[in-house]
From TrEMBL:
<dbReference type="GO" id="GO:0019216">
    <property type="term" value="P:regulation of lipid metabolic process"/>
</dbReference>
<protein>
    <recommendedName>
        <fullName>OPA3-like protein</fullName>
    </recommendedName>
</protein>
<dbReference type="Pfam" id="PF07047">
    <property type="entry name" value="OPA3"/>
</dbReference>
<keyword id="KW-0175">Coiled coil</keyword>
<dbReference type="InterPro" id="IPR010754">
    <property type="entry name" value="OPA3-like"/>
</dbReference>
<comment type="similarity">
    <text>Belongs to the OPA3 family.</text>
</comment>
<feature type="coiled-coil region">
    <location>
        <begin position="76"/>
        <end position="110"/>
    </location>
</feature>
<dbReference type="GO" id="GO:0005739">
    <property type="term" value="C:mitochondrion"/>
</dbReference>
Amino acid sequence: MSVQGQINTRSVQIKELPVDQAVEKGAEFLGEVLIFGVAVAVAAYEYDRSSKSGKEKERKANEREFQKQLEVDMRFRRLEHQMRAMDDQLNLLKSQLDSASAAIVRIQDERDLAMAQSQQSRWLRWS
């Protein structure tokens, strides 16, 4: 049996292959398809594995960054709390200082008044 086909409007006569050659060429073709299929499967597997590995590395990097951010936030909150406590303590100390200053001024005024009265009574006794 011969097959006839047209290529670019030219008629080409294709010779019939003997059975043993056809089997050999078919087996060769199937072998190459099998090898190509295995190569494609291995390449796809490696690509998928590499992609998963890259995603895992990215996930771990994101997790580390998230942990660092949490630590920074916790440290900031701790410092903020300490600052509020120190501010409260400072206000208490200012209040105590104001009270002590007022007491000192009052005592000095009382002393000055007592001294003035004492000097006045001395003057009155001499006169």
